[in-house]
Amino acid sequence: MLMAVVNALLIGVQGFVLAGVCHLLWPLLVIRRREPVRHWTVLGRSPRIAVLVAARNEASVINTLLTALASQSLSRHCFEVHVVADGCSDQTAAIARRAGATVWERPMMPSSTKGEALTWLWSQLDPAAWHGVVLFDADNAPDPECLAELTRALEGGAQVVQCLRIPGHGEAAGAAGWDGLGELCQQWIGAAGRARLGMSVPILGSGVAFRTGCFQWLLGRSHRVTLVEDADWMVELALAGIRVQWCPEARVRDCKTANWVALRSQRRRWLGGRVRLLQARGWALVWAGLRHGRFGAWDVLWQLLAPPRMVLALGVFGLAFGGYLGMPVWPLWPWVALALLLYVAVGVYGAGNARPSRREGWVMLLALPRFVWELLSAALHAWSGRAVGWQVTPKGRD
Asked: Which of 133, 176, 303, 391 is a Cys-bridge partner for 258, taking CB atoms 3.0 to 4.6 Å apart?
């Protein structure tokens, strides 16, 4: 009886891991070389873009963002930068003002989140004055063409546009390296494959543009206090059948944390928020897929269900090694492990100049065991249902 239960559990674990791997790898079947840059027909009127930045004690990094925004090729009269200094106790607001941004100071609220800060900031503005909204984090650094490309995509009819996020500002630390590599694979394979089929791509939380009406609608729909506003918006867009378009021509550099404690806290927040969101909206996604035939709703559902990529890889290689030791597992796991290595290789190749150097590769290799452990512990913490609050993620080392 006990062996029957163990075998049933083993089959269930293998099925879950295989489903996760299939969801991760299927875009490999449809990706291809990047298409030439698309030039949208520009509307007769000059676009007006509101660039929104939610910042809390970001004095050490926000000047890099504002300097990059001042160097955009998009005409300066076409966009304005608005920063909400959300309960800041440092010089974030003063630095932003000196850089030419419009600064709105919001007192610290209990359990305040990034989504709440953006909602408050938007309530201070006149929606009728803007054609589109672009969100950046305070530690971003958009390339000079970023705003122009996002604006062209909005003018071409897109409701939501996600740009390409390139990790780091030359960081070589292990935690930042693996975090960045995972995001590059997610974009160059996951986003590229979905875009190839005309599907919605994931929202990454920054470097994302909205038409004004869509953004205002999303803020009205996101009535829950969420720690993962990007995932919350993805769910609402999927339920409404609104596609998120990918624009790899628009690029932004995104600073990754090299601090292990900060990484653990950040992943606990992300994964815990996704678990709570899954509990609240999971059945709505299932029903949307069944009733309206929206495959995108099921795609988002699995993105909420799936464990971190490194945890998934740990399961695959563990099952492959178990088969080598004679455990009663399916014989396909060595081939699945090879497919995961191909996934990483394609992601690294597609990264181009953003791929890790040889030195960074050795640093990342040495840091791999701890990185896997931190993600596994964060996943177990999230699945246990324990609460975690929002806080600023420092970008320094331990």
From this structure: 176
Are residues 259 and 293 part of one domain?
no
Residue 33: the pLDDT is 52
Residues 156 and 299 in one domain: no
Tens digits of per-residue pLDDT, 46-89?
A: 789 999 999 999 999 999 999 999 999 999 999 999 999 998 88
Q: Name the band, by pLDDT with cuts 50, 70 and 90, for residue 115.
A: confident
- Sign, CA dihedral 391-396-397-398, equals negative
Domain assignment present for residue 41? The answer is no
Do 78 and 216 share a domain, yes or no?
yes
Residues 255 and 294 in one domain: no
Domains contained in the chain, number = 2
| Residue 375 lies in domain | 272-383
Q: Give yes or no for residue 39 having a pLDDT over 90.
A: no
Same domain, 228 and 285: no
pLDDT at 47: 84
pLDDT in tens, 171-229: 555 677 888 888 888 898 999 899 988 899 999 989 999 999 999 999 987 655 567 88
Tell me: pLDDT of 312 over 60: yes
Does 388 fall in a domain?
no
Provide the residue type at 175 as one letter.
Answer: A
Same domain, 245 and 358: no
**Residue type at position 84:** V
Same domain as 346, residue 258 = no
Work out the average pLDDT over 228-240. Answer: 92
